[in-house]
Amino acid sequence: MNNSVGNTARLIGAGLRALLVLTVICGIIYPLAVTGVAQALFHDQANGSEITSQGKVVGSELIGQTYHLPLKNPDDSEEAARPDLKWFQPRPSNGLGSNSVNTQYKLLLSGATNRSGDNTELIQWVTDAKKAVIADNKTKDYAVKPSDVPAEAVTSSGSGLDPHISPEYAQLQVHRVAEKNGLTVRQVEKLVKDHTEGRSLGFMGEPRVNVLDLNIALKALTGA
After folding, report:
1. pLDDT digits (tens, 9 = 90+) for 1-19
2. Would you kindly state where each structural domain of the chain is located, as residue ranges?
3. What's the 3-state SS for 139-161?
């Protein structure tokens, strides 16, 4: 009986010591080591690839944003918002729609629509989006040809949160942005050129423009 109690006590003691040691290693030392390495070697990425403007964090270079006019009626849904045409516009952000779990925050859930190419609702979305792009970017001396509207101007990405557009879509918006902000087309074209990123490592992906970076530079140029 005594031996049984003693063995049980030793097993419990060994288990508690193992729990304590593993808690210290896995719960304290390892997280601190990983966090330290991340902060030392990958500081920007570890902190969410934040973008700052005038000393304030305004977003992440990995997550797209919308640039809409304020809603006329606060009770209207986000779908009723109109784009603020003085800014460069990103890709559509259909994704999976608004957050329905926590209605305190108007978040967009990341994800694709998963509709097939012949889906009538998707075709209507693309058709309406194309008409809007053509109408929104028409100026007194510039008209958009339907054939010039790139695919990403009328479709969302797989995540619905793509922060980039192609240089072609940025160029399509140049005349409208110049007119709305009292700038010359040449000034805005240079802005797009200066913020066009090449392929990663010279061969992966496509040239792209980060819309948030571009709009921050536009704000600085206009002094707004």
Report:
1. 567 777 888 889 899 999 9
2. 2-43, 49-222
3. ECCECCCHHHCCHHHCCCCCCCC
